[in-house]
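Chapter summary example.
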Amino acid sequence: MDTGNLELLLSMETQARLDAQAEREKEQQQQLSEQDSMLAPRPTRIKFELPVTPPRSRSPARLAYPRARPVRSLPDEGLTANAMRHPLPMNNMKPRRAGWRHLFGDREEEELKQAPIPITIGTRVRLKMRPLPTFGYVRFIGAVDFGKGEYIGIELDHGVGNCDGSIDGIRYFDTDPHRGTFAKRRELEAVAE
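The structure predicted for these 193 residues follows.
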């Protein structure tokens, strides 16, 4: 064999090896792309939107527009004249400062405290023994089978109650589930609407 044929054979073999290597790399690339497409997340994802929160229904006791509080100011001479008429005792007791409520308090609240509202059916009440302010309307007053003495059935403004007006199959009043509860008179306080 001469040198020209040998170089031709070598170049042909080299070309065949390069072609084979390129083919292998192409196959490997194709396998990797198939694996990536299997593992890759879908290009489109389903998106969920939160439902629109329904507006809160206003209770019948609330006004459409809350009334403004009356603006009050301290009288210029009233406090000093009152202090002169009623001097403090001269013993060693510290004089009590008038609280913020006494100076700026709503006079309507003081009038309500003086004359308690009687609790009858339909009266708006506040449950005193609850950690958060809980209000409702009286729907039942009388004796019950589950306890001694007088109980008052209350339809609550919010669903934080323990019944729907019936206990042990006996219906005392009607309301929605978890909007009713029963309490003793001492656990309630009548409030103005």
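To summarize the output: The longest strand covers residues 134-144.
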